[in-house]
Design goal:
It is built from 4 helices and 24 strands. It is mainly beta. The protein folds into 2 domains: 85 residues, Immunoglobulin-like (Sandwich); 202 residues, Immunoglobulin-like (Sandwich). It has an 8-stranded mixed sheet, covered by helices on one side. Strands 1, 2, 5 and 8 form a 4-stranded mixed sheet that branches. A 4-stranded antiparallel sheet has the order 4-3-6-7, with no helix packed on it. The chain is elongated. The C terminus is likely disordered.
């Protein structure tokens, strides 16, 4: 067979459906034991959404075995346990045997999931102000918080947003996904039904409010734990009794304000967007820019702005780090 013929056969083999056995074990991370009777599915992501190729139940030892002809490309193994789905990617070239999927007992007790950070980025323009919020939850290492009735995440949406909000979720080890926000019986309070698993889960909110003169932004913090900050781009100043200036981020020149009360109101002056100063000026000498900030926020300032970039679409995956002096 000529080299050209061999190349053609090889190419056709890559395009043809592949048959592979996917097998492994589901382990309950709460008990540390194999989890029997969990539903395991082989899922193919695509432009039309997620397509379930096959589903089985784990045996008494928590093991599963799926024989299924699947198209080339990445697949997902999803384990359904106590109403919560846990996902493990199976990428091309990865071994399809010996897989382990961790699941956890679910609880409706909200105390197992705590907010560690909350930031609100205000970007006023000529006719409207874009508001981006990021709320980071730290889940219990042994339990999943799931409350389909009341929602695992609740937030206040200013009435000026007219109920229009986009919610994006970054779960541990997963890709960003969007979920709807539903009204609750409390005025201007919305809920999201999405389980908070062990590790870090971030909820990103994006909405707009109209610009008025004077421009006043008022909102509420529904969680009692964690730090809450307002972020204002260069050229924008916030004023109010409910905040205090904590420092300035050196890369973007954004101002960071600490929110002192759960209900707060600020007056917004100026216009601006969150763009690094070097990017805005076209200058980049490759050297890091350093600027002294107050110790009170030094341990979370870079994290806050990095999160803001993710919210604004400048990155889909964020590595959370806390720099400490």
């Amino acid at each position: 067979m000529s080299a050209g013929a061999r190349a053609l056969v090889f190419s056709m083999a890559l395009l043809a459906p592949c048959f592979a056995a996917v097998e492994g074990v589901v382990v309950n991370g709460t008990t540390g034991e194999p989890q029997p009777n969990a539903i395991v599915s082989l899922v193919q992501p695509g432009q039309g959404g997620m397509q379930t190729l096959a589903s089985v139940r784990t045996d008494a030892q928590g093991k599963f075995h799926i024989d299924k002809e699947a198209p080339p490309g990445p697949q997902l193994i999803q384990a359904l346990y106590q109403g919560v789905i846990y996902t493990k990617p199976v990428l091309p070239g990865m071994p399809a045997g010996g897989l382990r999927v961790d699941v956890f007992d679910a609880t409706s007790k909200s105390s197992v999931a705590k907010v560690s950070q909350h930031f609100i980025v205000l970007q006023p323009g000529a006719s409207e102000m874009t508001v981006s919020e990021g709320i980071l939850f730290q889940g219990d290492p042994k339990l999943t918080f799931s409350d389909p009735t009341n929602g695992s995440f609740r937030f206040y949406l200013p009435p000026e947003a007219k109920g229009q909000v986009q919610v994006t979720i970054n779960a541990p080890g997963g890709m960003p996904i969007q979920r709807p926000a539903d009204k609750t019986k409390q005025e201007n309070v919305y809920k999201v039904d999405y389980p908070i698993k062990p590790g870090e889960t971030r909820f990103d909110l994006n909405y707009t409010v109209p610009v008025a003169s004077p421009l006043v932004f008022a909102s509420k913090i529904l969680h009692s734990e964690g730090a809450s900050d307002l972020v204002a781009p260069q050229g924008v100043t916030l004023k109010g009794d409910d905040i205090e200036l904590a420092g300035q981020e050196p890369t973007t020149q954004a101002s960071i304000y600490r929110i002192k009360n759960t209900s707060f109101k600020v007056e917004v002056e100026g216009t601006g967007s969150l763009t690094p100063a070097a990017e805005a000026s076209g200058e980049d000498n490759g050297a890091p820019t350093l600027k002294e900030v107050k110790p009170r926020i030094y341990d979370r300032l870079y994290w806050v702005l990095g999160m803001a970039f993710a919210v604004l679409g400048l990155g889909s995956v964020l590595l959370y780090r806390t720099a400490r002096s």
